Amino acid sequence: MFEIIEKIELAEDTNLIELSAPDIAENALPGQFVIIVAEEKGERIPLTITDRNTEKGTITVVYKILGRSTADLGRMEKGTSLFNVAGPLGKPSEIRRFGTVAVVGGGIGIALIYPVAKALSRCGNRVITVIGAQNEKLLILRDRIASVSAELLIATDDGSAGRKGFVTELLEDRIKKEKIDMVFAVGPVVMMKAAAAVTKKYGIKTIVSLNPIMVDGTGMCGACRVEVGGKTKFACVDGPDFDAHEVNFELLAQRQKIYRKQEKKACGDCQCR
Amino acid sequence: MPVKKEKIEMPKQPAAERIKNFGEVALGYSEESARAEAERCLFCKNKPCVAGCPVSIDIPSFIKLIKEKKILEAYQKIKEENYLPAICGRVCPQESQCEIVCTMGKIGEPVAIGRLERFAADYAYLRKNSVLSASPSGKKSKKKVAIIGGGPAGLTAAGVLAGAGFAVTVFEALHLPGGVLAYGIPEFRLPKKIVAKEVENLAAMGVEFKYGYVIGRTRTLAQLFEGGFSAVFIGIGAGLPKFQNIPGENLNGVYSANEFLTRVNLMKAYKFPEYLTPVKEIKNAAVVGGGNVAMDASRCALRLGAENVYNIYRRTRKEMPAREEEIENAEEEGVKFNFLVNPVELTGDESGSVSKMKCVKMKLGAPDESGRRRPVEIPGEFVFFEVDTVIMAIGTSANPLLPSTVPELKLNKWGYIEVDPETGETSMENVYAGGDIVTGSATVISAMKAGKTAAYSIIKKLK
User: Fold this and answer.
1) Which chain B residues are within 8 Å of A261, Cβ to Cβ?
2) Does a structural domain hold residue B131?
3) Chain B 395-424, residues with CB within 8 Å of chain A CB atoms
């Protein structure tokens, strides 16, 4: 169980792994996540399900090496098995015919919007995908994303691919040119916050997928508390998708930093950030 | 020789020592002490202790066997009714169950039944003689039973059903078994190797365990029946942690007791960074609540190096629902109790971490439905605590994750599953439930009793 049957380095410190998990694959829907425990003494790490293959009984997840736990995961090669994988968790994204939908992904978020873009396209939406990263090399899964999008718009911080600038600028330009019925945005908190600010101005309903720190992922601990519409929600069971215009992004960013000090300690002398 | 009026003492780690480690606090009887304690039993005819035990262990018989040095037999005698004796001997509230009614209690202290139960189980474990006998008839049923949740209710039901020859699979949402025994109760009260041992026993009986398996998500209840299971037992625990709903509760450093204890116990944050799950450094912690969970959280905080741990309770010591033994342990270890205070606001520093807790003073009013005097605010009177960690141990509510995926399952107004108390059967045929998801937060032993009741009903139904 939970054997890594494929591992692909998508960019520096960013890997895709395909895991044998037939039971999870069967019921997984876009927007849901798994919690993986790489090794017995490891943390429980929430990762969005990027893809699934019910025939092969596999799920695909993409992770970026950001600290000790993801660095340990990064050292696990094809053929090894993870200690445990739980899922699919969280509520699936709402997938139906909205019309024209802009799907926005930043950095590692590109991997997370892929299943949503794919499902929305299949459902008959015109999907305009906007992806962005620091540079061209970090624009992961570009071909896969293109294959499920009516149009693919690209922004990079350094201008090495697409437009130099931010995805939110591309999004706003497009909103000015064409009627967008719905926006899905997944990425770093600052990006989601900026995207929410843009779409609010134009009154376009926007969904973001939140990524707070989690432990159990089934509603039991409340580590993943987020504030939406002034109310406390548990991202693991009430989300992870929420109405972007109601989310308290400052609180989310603040709560992501709780263990900064311990994260550094766990890394010891290594350079895994 | 006259009967000794006091219990034989059980050695404990001294408080000053034990707050520096997560090793077990109570060290258990020696064989000699156990026999001496067994001598205190009057073997009275009416056996009030048996009626006081939720699972009706034949207490005088096992005590007699200890007295006769037949300790493995004593262990087997307990196992006839109780599948997790090493656990119950440690965490059962004996003082309000079997021991409170003990005849010896009329002339002195009651017999230390819990300590004797623990002794017999530990003795058997050391001698590896703890595997339950398999199906007595030797007959194996082809019928499959699914147990949802690997906590005390589920493990007990699994043991009874496997013993009766059913093919049992336990679906556990976490990556390790035990439920509250693993994530909730700390190592120093219940060593995790004991939980592991019980699970090993069940596996040796043929019980299959699936981890990271969330029924309602990985599989639905309907899919279990489609997959060939003839009956299902739901023992998923109480679930969602309650918060106080006061300003500042989402500041960094504010935990639910479930989160704090899960990090420390299940994920072993006290061994960070050998184990990779962290917990915040603690200097001054406030733990809100007066139950066993609050005591566990307070004592974990001390062991993680906290200088001050303030227990915050809105009633007085007399109304605390925690076991007396646990309150005493906490006092010995230096937890600072603050009664008749209730948090109303948390404020933080510039980094968004909690730094101060404001509490309103309370007084006791007229008794409420629970019979305890209701705490009433004294308007305008406040006390403040400088804290960097706040742990809310004020209870849980029903986790809707599974029930919300099964609309046919009848729930009560609080979201707990309705069952026939005689059989454990829910509103759905062949679906049984028990433990905290039926009663709300209760004890390990009451969950075990519910698991046992449901298992016997399932055996009857499927035969």
Assistant:
1) 281
2) no
3) 399-401
Alpha helices in chain A (DSSP H): 22-27, 68-74, 109-122, 142-147, 167-177, 189-202, 235-238, 249-256, 260-267
- pLDDT, averaged across chain B: 94
Instruction: Give CB contacts under 8 A, 24+ apart, made by A222-230.
Output: A222/B240, A222/B241, A222/B243, A222/B255, A222/B256, A222/B258, A222/B259, A223/B255, A223/B259, A225/A255, A225/B250, A226/A251, A226/A252, A226/A255, A227/A251, A227/B250
Whether B366 and B373 have beta carbons less than 8 Å apart is answered as: yes
- Taking the C-alpha atoms of residue A187 and residue A190, their distance in angstroms, rounded to an integer, is 8
Res. B128 pLDDT band, cuts 50 70 90 = low
Residue B437 pLDDT > 50, yes or no? yes
Alpha carbon distance B50, B28 (integer Å): 22
Q: Judge whether B9 lies within some domain.
A: no
Q: In the predicted model, is pLDDT for residue A172 greater than 90? A: yes
Let me know whether B381 and B402 are in one domain.
Answer: no
Substitution target from B148, B169, B172, B175 for chain A, most A beta carbons within 10 A = B175
Query: Considering only A208-212, A242-246, B67-71, B200-204, which range has the smallest mean pLDDT?
Result: B200-204
Residues of B in contact with A215 (CB under 8 A): 259, 262-263, 267, 277
Confidence (pLDDT) at B373: 87
Mention every residue, 6+ apart, whose C-beta is less than 8 A from residue B207.
B158, B159, B162, B168, B169, B170
Where does B300-367 show beta strands of DSSP type E?
308-313, 336-339, 341-348, 354-367
Within 8 A of A42 by CB-CB distance, chain B residues are 276
CA distances, B146 to each of A107, B199, B225, B238 (Å): 42, 16, 9, 19
Whether B135 has a pLDDT exceeding 50, the answer reads: no
* CATH number of the domain that residue B291 is part of: 3.50.50.60
**Per-residue pLDDT tens for B323-367?**
999 999 999 999 999 999 999 999 999 999 999 999 999 999 998
Examine the predicted complex and report whether its ipTM is higher than 0.85.
Answer: yes
- Domain containing B326 equals 243-395
3-class SS shares of chain B: helix, strand, coil, % to 5: 35, 20, 45
Q: Tell me: do B256 and B389 sit in the same domain.
A: yes
**What is the spatial distance between Cα B300 and Cα A108, in angstroms, rounded to a whole number?**
37
Residue B233, pLDDT score: 98
- Asked if residue B248 and residue B348 are part of one domain, the reply reads yes
Same domain, B302 and B257: yes
Q: How confident is residue A260, by pLDDT bands cut at 50, 70 and 90?
A: confident
* Site from A221, A237, A247, A269 to mutate, B interface, most B CB atoms within 10 angstroms: A221
In chain A, the domains with their CATH numbers are 2-89 (2.40.30.10), 100-256 (3.40.50.80)
**What's the distance, Cα to Cα, between the start and end of chain B in Å?**
53
Spell out which residues of chain B touch residue A259, defining contact as CB-CB under 8 Å. Answer: 278, 280
Looking up tokens 């293109």 gives A146
DSSP per position, A76-144? PPTT-B-SEEEEEESPPP--S--SEEEEEEETTHHHHHHHHHHHHHHTT-EEEEEEEESSGGG-TTHHH
Give the separation between CA A237 and CA A113, rounded to whole angstroms. Answer: 19
The reply to whether the predicted model has a pTM over 0.80 is yes
State the DSSP code for B19.
T
